[in-house]
């Protein structure tokens, strides 16, 4: 196949664990390619995860620990290495991986600094003019405001029927619907940019390999699908999540750090939830509809790859930066320092010519960049934390590791509590800074309702997992002194 083209689709803040959203294009790609059912994000926060996606490094090694405190790049990124190997790199969408933009890393396309807001860019205005579309407008159903919402998004109010996002970023904590055509949404804007570039590449006859990556801002909140997608969930019964009624009594205090109205004046989640499950289920339909809408836009890119004749020499990767805790563990919105299954699990699908199947191997965000470079016949010049998945794809290995560490440093503005987590077999073990440990049997307790870290029946298993987490953490570099003292639960 020589040096194949590489197309990567990255969704943001993907509701994945719920398995309730309809994503036919992602599912179709999975049926045509190779799926990793046990994939996890290396850190459940945009900035650190996206930097890891570029570098193959743990956040504590690349230093970009929070969303709004970007560390300078001193490490390689995979687009830089691809460029050295003769690739042209094209990027479209969200950056949020550190200072600058993707265009600073041997890439062309559309990329804005920080979290960004596509709706205020010249490129979006030109797209609207080209398509004869109005600017996107939204009707607001519900708001989950933080301390800065009123200043940053003064028009984001429940009942507003013609809301436009004109702030410097577009991560409003709101639920509603898009009242303009779906093509006004950022997902279709980005898909159009990518498809136009694919058409250009198909027409110019250049045989040079290319990498094309699309990072959607969605389905991250604000949840603003159009009626077309909302109607798809009419009459759909959404069963109550198995951890919706979690009292959080045996969880670290970081689980309680939330925003109003589901939190009290001190910022602690109100348990039981102020909303009934029926109310959460109606909100989830909007969340699911947004995932379906983004899936539709992404599917257009995949179809363009096929229709333009690239399929036989193109690898397509579909993944997300992290998950979404929506409605889980007592009724949450967004995410935090905690490492729940809802926040850490991500899709990872690779469609590669001649390769089909699935694997439950332990894989994470750090593995994606080394895999891309391995497929391209090259590698990072320095050692990284991730490992190439190509041996699994080619059937030469069943796994690349026996256990896997993940980490969090908190959201930064609300909480900077450090957490490290080890996945091994059926168990998950987490150490939270200055708080109790967690251990779950994910086969017997998939919704993590029963923290067995201090259950004497599992004492030897807990001790072994904790020791391994400390060992893996120490060998990966960075300070682990905060992990060594085991906090006992209060009686």
- Mass-distribution shape: globular
Instruction: Kindly report the oligomeric state of this protein.
Output: single chain
The largest β sheet comes out as: 8 strands, mixed
Helix share, percent? 25-40%
Uncertain parts: none
Calculate the mean pLDDT score and round it. 95
Terminal Cα span? 62 Å
Give me the side-by-side strand order of the main sheet. Answer: 5-4-8-1-9-10-2-11
Number of strands: 16
Radius of gyration: 22 Å
Q: What is the H-and-E element order?
A: EHEEHHHEEHEHEHEHHEHEEEHHEEEEH
Query: Number of DSSP helices?
Result: 13
Strand content is 15-25%
Name the structural class: alpha/beta
Structure description:
It is a single chain. An 8-stranded mixed sheet has the order 5-4-8-1-9-10-2-11, sandwiched between helices. It has a 4-stranded antiparallel sheet with strand order 13-14-15-16, covered by helices on one side. With 491 residues, the protein is an alpha/beta fold. Helices cover 27% and strands 16% of the residues. Strand 14 and strand 15 form a beta hairpin. It is globular, with a radius of gyration of 22 Å.
């Amino acid at each position: 196949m020589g040096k194949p083209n590489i197309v990567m689709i990255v969704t943001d803040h993907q509701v994945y664990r719920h398995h309730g959203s309809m994503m036919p294009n992602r599912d179709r790609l999975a049926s045509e390619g190779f799926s990793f059912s046990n994939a996890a994000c290396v850190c459940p926060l945009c900035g650190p995860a996206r930097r890891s996606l570029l570098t193959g490094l743990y956040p504590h090694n690349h230093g970009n620990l929070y969303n709004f405190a970007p560390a300078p790049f001193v490490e390689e990124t995979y687009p830089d290495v691809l460029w050295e190997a003769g690739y042209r790199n094209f990027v479209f969408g969200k950056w949020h991986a550190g200072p600058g933009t993707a265009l600073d890393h041997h890439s062309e396309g559309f990329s804005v600094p920080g979290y960004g807001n596509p709706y205020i860019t010249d490129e979006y205005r030109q797209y609207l003019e080209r398509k004869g579309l109005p600017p996107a407008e939204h009707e607001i159903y519900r708001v989950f405001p933080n301390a800065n919402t009123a200043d940053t998004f003064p028009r984001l109010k429940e009942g507003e029927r013609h809301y436009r996002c004109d702030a410097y970023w577009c991560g409003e904590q709101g639920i509603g619907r898009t009242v303009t055509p779906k093509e006004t949404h950022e997902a279709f804007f980005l898909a159009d940019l990518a498809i136009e570039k694919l058409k250009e590449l198909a027409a110019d006859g250049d045989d040079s390999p290319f990498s094309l990556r699309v990072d959607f801002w969605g389905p991250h909140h604000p949840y603003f699908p159009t009626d077309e997608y909302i109607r798809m969930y009419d009459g759909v019964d959404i069963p109550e999540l198995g951890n919706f009624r979690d009292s959080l009594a045996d969880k670290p205090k970081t689980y309680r750090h939330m925003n109003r109205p589901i939190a009290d004046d001190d910022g602690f989640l109100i348990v039981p939830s102020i909303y009934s499950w029926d109310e959460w289920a109606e909100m989830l339909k909007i969340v699911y509809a947004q995932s379906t809408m983004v899936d539709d836009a992404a599917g257009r890119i995949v179809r363009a790859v096929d229709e333009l004749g690239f399929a036989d020499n193109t690898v397509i990767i579909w993944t997300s930066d992290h998950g979404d805790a929506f409605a889980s563990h007592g009724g949450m919105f967004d995410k935090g320092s905690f490492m729940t299954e809802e926040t850490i699990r991500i899709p990872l699908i690779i469609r590669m010519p001649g390769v089909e199947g699935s694997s439950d191997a332990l894989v994470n965000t750090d593995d994606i960049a080394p895999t891309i470079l391995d497929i391209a016949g090259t590698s990072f010049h320095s050692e990284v934390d991730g490992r190439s998945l190509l041996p699994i794809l080619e059937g030469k290995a069943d796994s690349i590791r026996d256990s896997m560490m993940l980490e969090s440093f908190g959201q930064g503005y609300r909480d900077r509590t450090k957490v490290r987590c080890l996945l091994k077999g059926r168990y998950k073990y987490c150490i939270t800074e200055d708080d109790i440990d967690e251990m779950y049997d994910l086969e017997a307790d998939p919704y993590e309702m029963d923290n067995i870290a201090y259950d004497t029946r599992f004492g030897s298993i807990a001790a072994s997992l904790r020791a391994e987490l400390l060992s893996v953490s120490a060998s990966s570099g960075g300070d682990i002194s905060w992990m060594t003292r085991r906090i006992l639960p209060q009686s």
